[in-house]
Amino acid sequence: ASQWGRGRNKDGEMYQTVTEGLQSLYTKKLLPLEETYLFHDFHSPALEAADFQSKPMVLLVGQYSTGKTTFIRYLLEQDFPGMRIGPEPTTDGFIAVMHGENEGVVPGNALVVDPKKPFRKLNAFGNSFLNRFICSQMPNQVLQSISIIDTPGILSGEKQRISRGYDFAEVLRWFGERVDRIILLFDAHKLDISDEFSEAIKAFKGQDDKIRVVLNKADQVDTQQLMRVYGALMWSLGKVINTPEVVRVYLGSFWAKPLQNTENRRLFEAESQDLFRDIQSLPRNAALRKLNDLIKRARLAKVHAYIISYLKKEMPSLFGREKKKEELIMRLPEIYTTLQREHHISPGDFPNVAKMQDMLQHYDFSKFPSLKMKLIESVDKMLATKIAVLMAMIREEESKQPPAMVSGGAFEGSQDGPFGQGYGEGISAGADTEDWIVSRDKHRYDEIFYTLMPVNGKITGVNAKKEMMNSRLPNTVLGKIWKLADCDRDGMLDDEEFALAQHLIKIKLEGYELPTELPDHLVPPAHRKNPTADALYNHTED
What is the average per-residue pLDDT within 223-237? Predict the structure, then answer.
């Protein structure tokens, strides 16, 4: 980007920010292609300024009573306007929980006319949807960096699906294309994937990189049952999400009540920290996600243009149009194969055949536009050159001013202090005690030390190596332990250094990581720089 100034591209356009760059590329290059070939009628409405400028969004999907609304409450640590929680299906609509100076609820019909919110295109789903869509606004630190969307609990029966009055899976698909994270919640107690749920998951096809799975209420079963539930969950998901990769599943109990089964407490702690880290990284990757989604969209738009123009080309000029149309719709799978060969496109870029055949019934093919290579070339050029410029800008923007991590709510309490993950364990054990923690086991280590024939109170590297090899740790790890333990770098170990080496081996064998530098509380008393500390530890000095 540097050769044309800050983010300036060959046409001399200037982008101040990545967001602005994305928006300008979309409106100048991709939108004309989409409009010409009726992309918006077939696939997804046009993007607007708010789509590019909105905060990262997290979409929560799950059957009723899996704890979706409670999960939001757990993250925010306060109630949000319009929330209802209960064992029966309570949240019967979509709630967008967003940041606002004043607490309050904005109804759906008002939401879809607000140009500042990314929801304007939802008016296409009609009144029965808008009556069940609200935006809940409140001042909350977590919401300054992300917005959360709560969805209606998915029901197990067939009857409810028909009575919703709007196309639930389509609405989910619309959100799936625009959010940064899709969290599927399951209840460890009643694990089943109903038809509607599996349709909902299938609506996220192509968004697999955004999906994370949470197995909630995992403290209500014991370890053996949890293993079984986890296995059953993976088995069921494998049949619905058709990807070779395994989805990431977080186990835990995501609410602020005491755990019912504490045997897996450490597992739940580690899992919830992982999930928090995943959500916290969203603002950092938001620009990249928007770029990624734009590329996905551009590829689909290109394929769509090829399909539409091909159908137009095949139409007879005067007679037999209806017959030809039926034949073309029947032959759509073959047409896909022809286009794949002709334009070297992978099959994965093509839209769903059955759905496309269904929609094509309602159009007059002879009115379709023919192929305009100029439009396609301009999108190709955008993908080849402009996107790379924006990638460089994203990195540059990040290094200059990294976006803030999500903070506040449940993201606060767990990092520092005695309840932080790993506090007082492994390498940080003994950080807040008066004595040198190694001295507690030093008498045991001393017995081994004196069998290794010390000379002038020190043992050689060769003798120490024999003893350290008994731990069966690989040489790379033992080498690191040696570096940490040999404080005075003399290639030999005195009794304190040897005890320290044994302590580090014990930490490593317990499965904790080793630091690159020795923390102060582990430095042997005889090797401390600070004389007052020496006086504390070696009472022999006068």
Answer: 91
What is the mean predicted confidence (pLDDT) over 390-402?
Answer: 80
Phi/psi for 265 (5° steps) reads -55, -45
**So what's the architecture of 18-46+292-399 in CATH?**
Orthogonal Bundle (1.10)
* 13/21 Cα distance (integer angstroms): 9
Same fold for the domain at 18-46+292-399 and the one at 57-281? no
CATH superfamily of 426-532: EF-hand (1.10.238.10)
pTM (whole model) above 0.90: no
- Decide: 507 and 480 in contact? Cβ < 8 Å: no
Domain 57-281 belongs to what topology?
Rossmann fold (3.40.50)
User: Inter-axis angle of helices 353-360 and 321-330, to 10 degrees?
Assistant: 170
Rounded to an integer, what distance in angstroms lies between the CA atom of residue 57 and that of residue 147? Answer: 5
Spatial neighbors of 399 by CB under 8 A, at least 6 apart, are none
Tell me: pLDDT of 132 over 60.
yes
User: What integer pLDDT is reported at residue 139 of this predicted model?
Assistant: 92
Label residue 90 by pLDDT band (50, 70, 90): low
Q: Domain residue spans in the chain?
A: 18-46+292-399, 57-281, 426-532
